[in-house]
């Protein structure tokens, strides 16, 4: 597993741990701006480097695609897959998940 994948997954766990506290759950419901600020202050470098991922995590969105992305990046780095294979697989996955599902 690449060091970037480990780093990102460790941040994901850290943020999920932080947002699971009752204080953060209450803030999310009652004062989202302060909720976001407190978590941002907790992991400022991560928010700066991965703003979309930061939002995805604090919103409680599905991280299945993140895990797939990280696995595929490791496969590319190790030479097990090409970039085109990853693009095609991801495209098919997203099509099945969002396009076929909505029919």
Hey, roughly how much beta strand do the residues contain? under 5%
Radius of gyration, whole Å: 16 Å
Count of structural domains? 2
Give me the secondary-structure category.
Answer: mainly alpha
Instruction: Summarize the amount of helix as a percent range.
Output: over 70%
Mean pLDDT figure: 90
Q: Give the ordered list of helices and strands.
A: HHHHHHH
Tell me about the biggest sheet? none
Shape: flat
Beta strand count: 0
Unreliable stretches: none
| SS element count, helices | 7
Q: How far apart are the termini?
A: 37 Å
Helices and strands in order:
Elements: H1 3-19, H2 22-30, H3 32-42, H4 44-49, H5 51-58, H6 64-78, H7 83-100
Helix pairs in contact: 2-3
What does this structure look like?
By secondary structure, the chain is mainly α. The termini are far apart. 82% of the residues lie in helices and 0% in strands. The chain has helices at 3-19, 22-30, 32-42, 44-49, 51-58, 64-78, 83-100.
């Amino acid at each position: 597993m690449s060091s970037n994948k480990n780093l990102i997954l460790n941040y994901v766990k850290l943020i999920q741990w932080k947002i699971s506290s009752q204080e953060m759950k209450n803030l999310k419901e009652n004062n989202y701006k302060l909720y976001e600020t407190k978590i941002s202050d907790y992991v400022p470098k991560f928010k700066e480097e991965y703003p979309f991922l930061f939002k995805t995590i604090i919103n409680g969105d599905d991280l299945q695609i993140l895990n797939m992305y990280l696995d595929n990046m490791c496969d590319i780095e190790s030479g097990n897959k090409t970039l085109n294979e990853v693009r095609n697989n991801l495209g098919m996955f997203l099509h099945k998940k969002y396009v076929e599902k909505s029919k």
